[in-house]
């Protein structure tokens, strides 16, 4: 288990060189399959960094040192994802999704991913008060990713075929869900 405080802030354009390094790392490149030229990183992450699109790109730190990225978005802001999921799982537009990476390979396999995911999910209930759940589709082949979701408290709710992020993967995906916690009933006195 990796010790330290997990925090995050919005990704800025000044973070793009670090993000690019992470995207070039084999353990990230395998699953993110992202163009890594500086221009491509700026093109794809710039709008969120500047607040021009509704998704959030969050630079995650451990005890103040950057270690990864979480992308968080509402399905309603990207209706094409609702449509793609519809044959497998109905998703309310206020439902949130997250994608994540641990950029520092030395910190993988130590439970940090699950801690980061859970921390962001717990905060999601405040920053997205209408969200009924967080739903995350993951390539069935990406065992480390779906195991991190399970360790963070997610439940597998469906399986089906979706477009893979990496064209070398097949279409098989597993879908995980974390429902908004129900508040404890307020005790009444007699």
TrEMBL record:
Alphabetic keyword roster: Acyltransferase, Antibiotic resistance, Transferase
Record InterPro entries: Acyl_CoA_acyltransferase, GNAT_dom
Name of the protein: Aminoglycoside 6'-N-acetyltransferase
Keyword Acyltransferase: yes
Domain of life: Bacteria
Pfam family membership, one: Acetyltransf_8
Residues of the N-acetyltransferase domain: 6-181
Entries under SUPFAM superfamilies matching the protein: Acyl-CoA N-acyltransferases (Nat)
Organism: Saccharothrix violaceirubra
Any single biological process term in GO: response to antibiotic
Annotated EC: 2.3.1.82
GO molecular function per UniProt: aminoglycoside 6'-N-acetyltransferase activity
